[in-house]
Prior knowledge:
By secondary structure, the protein is an all-alpha fold. About 80% of the residues lie in helices and about 0% in strands.
Amino acid sequence: xxxxxxxxxxxxxxxxxxxxxxxxxxxxxxxxxxxxxxxxxxxxxxxxxxxxxxxxxxxxxxxxxxxxxxxxxxxxxxxxxxxxxxxxxxxxxxxxxxxxxxxxxxxxxxxxxxxxxxxxxxxxxxxxxxxxxxxxxxxxxxxxxxxxxxxxxxxxxxxxxxxxxxxxxxxxxxxxxxxxxxxxxxxxxxxxxxxxxxxxxxxxxxxxxxxxxxxxxxxxxxxxxxxxxxxxxxxxxxxxxxxxxxxxxxxxxxxxxxxxxxxxxxxxxxxxxxxxxxxxxxxxxxxxxxxxxxxxxxxxxxxxxxxxxxxxxxxxxxxxxxxxxxxxxxxxxxxxxxxxxxxxxxxxxxxxxxxxxxxxxxxxxxxxxxxxxxxxxxxxxxxxxxxxxxxxxxxxxxxxxxxxxxxxxxxxxxxxxxxxxxxxxxxxxxxxxxxxxxxxxxxxxxxxxxxxxxxxxxxxxxxxxxxxxxxxxxxxxxxxxxxxxxxxxxxxxxxxxxxxxxxxxxxxxxxxxxxxxxxxxxxxxxxxxxxxxxxxxxxxxxxxxxxxxxxxxxxxxxxxxxxxxxxxxxxxxxxxxxxxxxxxxxxxxxxxxxxxx
Length: 597
């Protein structure tokens, strides 16, 4: 009985527990289903959100890339204008391209675009203001510093350009491209020795690598070549780097490329210095052809080759050809960089040299003064770039017998050399030589000889194998000996200078005419009239062949007439006197016309 009761209670309990259990189980199932549904919804939303997020990221990335491409378009334009790769027509096209790109650029980058435009237009004040504004928001300091460096370069402030490149290198020590730009900036700022030492040290490291980077070797070699040409050192020392750069340029770039053209230009300068004149002209013309055929960049890049080719033509007595090259070079650089950029100094001096050879002295003076002003304003009075045009101006003043003006320039330059601790430099030797020329013209023979001997001693000490450096000093000493009556010594000196010019391939240049006029003067003083007549005739023929109708030719004709009188050839003498007077009148009229212009 008791067992039955207990059993009934257990069954009742089990029945109750089963209902509860079933209820709980059902609730759990419902909860799981609901959770699963929620999970699926959330997962779908998350997926959609991720897809939407990714799409937005792609959109942002795409927009960023598009803006970057637009910035790249602008940046390429500014890099072209940095090299001055725009002429008069191209400048207008450049502005249109910048305006078109700036219109499409995002508002956020508009300041960046306008800064690039201001740099391209040489508007330094506007560019500086925009770059200052960008610097308050800009996170990419490297890009900002690059723009600042380009802005300073475009306006010819190399010391400031150097500062910004150094800041980039502090942030990116391995940025070789910027390091190379720094070296070039140092060279242009008359710190060629510093640039060369850095370049040589880096080149040594690069070449020690198991697989040396040819591009780096090529760029460093070019920097070294530049330091020799801008630091007024002996360019012959650059010879191994010139051939290295040429070989690598041909390996790394097409034959018709700016790099190969530049390599030919350097080789042509080297060959000119080695007096291999035929080969020199060949490579100058190759370089010019390449530069002029490299799309729009050629218009500016050819300017440097044109100036060098003009110097070559002056050297070999082709003055009209030189004039065409020099005038075009000045026009191209002025259109690209403006009239006050330091890169205008070299073509202005080259053109002024040509004007001097052609007797256009007022134009030569204005050119030297303009180059001098640019150098003083942008690089300082103690720069090599200031020394060059100032020294050339003093030579012109001596030729025009403006001795006070010439002496003041020379004394000032000597003081600057002494302040730099270079009282025995080749520059100082050249200054002593020119001061000696002034004393000679003033018939102060002992003072003149003392200064010339001092100059020759320095040249023999510093450049014992460079006859060209000593050429003019020997020539002036020859004149002094002639004036002192030391005719045999004077003859030996004149013959020595003739031999040097012949060795250099300059036998038919106006330099030879100048030397031989001195020889004719010696023969005149020795009363060797027949020898003098032959030399004067040769000198006049050479000047006429070179179309050098200058006051020097007037003087030669006058001396020739006097010599003919001594030989009792009065009729011929009268003819040459009349020719001399006619040429003198014509030159005075031309000089007045050029002055008015």
